[in-house]
């Protein structure tokens, strides 16, 4: 399983924030015939339905792996656990213009805008991802 994980056999996370993190298989129940195997992204902790592998659909029962496979895998191989460097924030844009948090939006945050003004006055740069 370690080699399969390193080769990315189970796919990569579709989220942009995860930077194509390798997925790991996981079961949703310990009971047979409850659900098929799913894949888990260790960076964002989301569970996805696996894509077709080499033209075949995945038909393995999730009980064979169990709900704790990912945790046990990373306990045995702690060097493979993804290291999240910093919290990434997604700011929605439309044609290059920010949509989220603008004046008039229900998500507008006055304190955040004041903080940006203070950092600009002090010459501190703020990064928006």
Offer a concise description of the structure:
With 129 residues, the protein is of the alpha+beta class.
The rough form would be described as elongated
Q: Which strand order does the major sheet show?
A: 1-2-3
Q: Uncertain spans, ≥5 residues at pLDDT below 50?
A: none
Q: How many β-strands, per DSSP?
A: 5
Describe this structure in words.
With 129 residues, this protein is of the alpha+beta class. Strands 1-2-3 form a 3-stranded antiparallel beta sheet, with no helix packed on it. The chain has a two-stranded antiparallel sheet with strand order 4-5. The longest helix is centred in the C-terminal third of the chain and has 13 residues. The chain is built from 3 helices and 5 strands. It folds into 2 domains: 79 residues, N-terminal domain of TfIIb, CATH 2.20.25; 30 residues, no CATH class.
How do the helices and strands line up, and which of them pair or pack?
Layout: H1 2-7, E1 24-26, E2 38-40, E3 47-48, H2 69-76, E4 93-94, E5 97-98, H3 110-122
Antiparallel strand pairs: 1-2, 2-3, 4-5
Properties at a glance:
129 residues, alpha+beta, 3 helices, two-stranded antiparallel ribbon, N-terminal domain of TfIIb, elongated, 5 strands, 2 domains, three-stranded antiparallel β-sheet, 21% helix
């Amino acid at each position: 399983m370690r080699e399969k994980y390193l080769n990315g056999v189970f796919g990569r996370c579709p989220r942009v924030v995860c930077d194509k993190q390798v997925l790991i298989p996981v079961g949703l129940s310990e009971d047979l015939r409850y659900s098929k195997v799913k894949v888990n992204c260790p960076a964002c902790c989301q569970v996805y339905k696996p894509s077709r592998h080499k033209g075949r659909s995945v038909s393995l029962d999730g009980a064979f792996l169990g709900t704790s496979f990912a945790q046990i895998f990373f306990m045995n191989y702690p060097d493979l656990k993804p290291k999240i460097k910093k919290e990434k924030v997604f700011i929605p844009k439309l044609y290059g213009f920010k949509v989220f948090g603008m004046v008039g939006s229900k998500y507008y945050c006055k304190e955040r805008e004041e903080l940006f003004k203070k950092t600009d006055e002090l010459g501190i740069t703020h990064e928006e991802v």
